Amino acid sequence: MLNGQRFSAYNGGPEFKFSWGVSFMIHVETQKEVDHYWNALSEGGKELMCGWVEDKFGMVWQVTPNILLELISHKDPIKREKATQAMLKMRKIDISVLKEAVK
User: Cα–Cα distance between 93 and 38 in angstroms, integer?
Assistant: First the structure.
């Protein structure tokens, strides 16, 4: 179960490996939620860039605060660029840094 939803995956053997071509995005609202999912998923896995994390099984997840999506698609191109540049420097997304970048 993933967040109350039934989820099935099958082991296809060594010839079928996980790749970044398939990832799961977790939409969150708060930094507390970002931290919770990031810490849980990175335990035994790898921290990647821009809010991506690989779990201990090799599956890639995107822990994405909704404010990030709002800012990188903002109607103001300057804010959009500032938010994008701030995100590109992060591993785990820091909401306060994003907000500060677009002021």
Answer: 9
